[in-house]
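Exercise 7b. Backbone tokens:
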């Protein structure tokens, strides 16, 4: 990308903050997102300010988790979406961008072929990342830096095709894993009992010597729940999440859309998402969850900014 960004300048002898633009594309199993974001340096601190976040519910995982490949219809929709995203990135003119595809593309037999087509058609480079890299990018948000260093946290990101979990003890990352357990897999009945039981056992084992634990939740569904409950900057208690889950699960998808104003692509996945979060919190004996309302795209931007600033120091 070209990079004529706003440079440090002075006004009446006062140094102005430096601003760098970044773009991130998160290609998930349920939706694809384009984040256009500014990184502003003020008083030696970096502040991230979102210019735009665009979400398109392509639901690539519905094809892949059932048939093993992305259908012709969704392939065309994906190509059109990526062309649109590339045009927006060109207009925004970031210093750097990164596009990452996750669980659906990891398993799609035609995933690499489709990404080559996108590259030929619009010049957009997309990489398929493994679960470990996905967890690392989510961790790149460094939420733990703003929390109590003397406490322990379990960072949970629930997506359509996978769930990433990272354990922090006294500010240190001790373990990070990705599991093929997600909301679309749950809806399709593709989360096996033995995998589900093993998943919860892993949570119990890593949590055992790190109590008390507080959860940190990311992903579109927990963000939506957090806004619904209206907790603002306060943690969401396990019992409040359980109360909402119990209320939502007895209603049909149509009822959820009418009662809570969910979009169709949110009304079905929000219940299995709440169940996954609740099961993790129960297994880890966690009483509350912090929801910073960030995700993979934010982590990509944070990492891009760190890399760019390091390159400028060389």
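Sequence design result:
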């Amino acid at each position: 990308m070209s990079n004529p960004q706003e440079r440090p300048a002075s006004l009446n002898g006062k140094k102005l903050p430096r601003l760098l633009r970044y773009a991130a594309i998160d290609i998930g199993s349920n939706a694809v997102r384009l984040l256009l974001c500014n990184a502003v340096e003020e008083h030696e601190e970096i502040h991230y300010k979102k210019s735009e976040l665009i979400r398109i519910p392509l639901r690539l995982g519905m094809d892949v988790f059932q048939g093993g490949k992305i259908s012709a219809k969704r392939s065309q929709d994906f190509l059109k979406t990526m062309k649109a995203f590339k045009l927006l990135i060109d207009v925004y003119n970031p210093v750097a961008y990164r596009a990452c595809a996750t669980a659906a593309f990891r398993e799609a037999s035609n995933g690499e072929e489709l990404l080559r087509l996108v590259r030929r058609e619009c010049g957009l480079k997309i990489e398929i990342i493994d679960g470990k890299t996905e967890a690392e990018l989510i961790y790149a948000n460094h939420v733990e830096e703003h929390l109590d260093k003397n406490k322990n946290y379990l960072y949970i990101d629930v997506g359509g095709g996978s769930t990433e979990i990272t354990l922090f003890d006294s500010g240190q990352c001790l373990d990070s894993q990705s599991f093929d357990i997600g909301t679309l897999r749950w809806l399709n009945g593709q989360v096996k009992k033995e995998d589900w039981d093993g998943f919860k056992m892993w949570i119990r084992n890593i949590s055992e010597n790190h109590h008390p634990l507080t959860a940190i939740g990311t992903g579109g569904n927990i963000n939506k729940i957090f806004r619904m409950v209206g907790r603002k900057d306060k943690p969401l208690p396990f019992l409040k999440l359980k109360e909402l889950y119990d209320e939502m699960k007895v209603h049909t998808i149509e009822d959820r859309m009418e009662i809570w104003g969910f979009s169709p692509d949110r009304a079905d996945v929000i219940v299995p998402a709440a169940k996954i979060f609740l099961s993790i919190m129960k297994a880890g004996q966690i009483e509350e969850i912090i929801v910073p309302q960030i995700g993979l795209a934010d982590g990509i931007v944070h990492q891009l900014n760190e890399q760019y600033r390091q390159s400028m120091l060389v």
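Instructor comment: The longest strand covers residues 45-56. Residues 147-293 form a domain with the Nucleotidyltransferase; domain 5 fold (CATH 3.30.420.150).
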